[in-house]
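Suppose you are handed a protein chain with no further information: no name, no annotation, nothing but its sequence. What can you learn? This example shows the usual starting point.
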Amino acid sequence: MNILMKVKLDRKKRIIFFDEICSSYIIFNLVSDFDVLYSTRFFGPMVFYLCWFKKLDNFIAHLIETSNIDDCVRVITLYSLINEQKINENSTNPLDLIKV
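A reasonable first move is to predict its three-dimensional structure. Written in structure tokens, the prediction is:
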């Protein structure tokens, strides 16, 4: 097998793997079962995925329900950085980011 064919096969495997991972993130988001991935190497990429595709509603609700307000503020900050949305960084109270 030549190197070009191997690269194409590797790329195809990565694309299939990526599709499977994204499908898993969608399922975790739909059932709001985020604790399963907590403390795994997949948790951070899942948060990034949710921020990138603007699907944070269930995750933010989960963080608030479990009293992880600091994490909620961090996720909202990450979301604003990824999507280039302004947030009030001058606020002295980080909870101002969560208020709707």
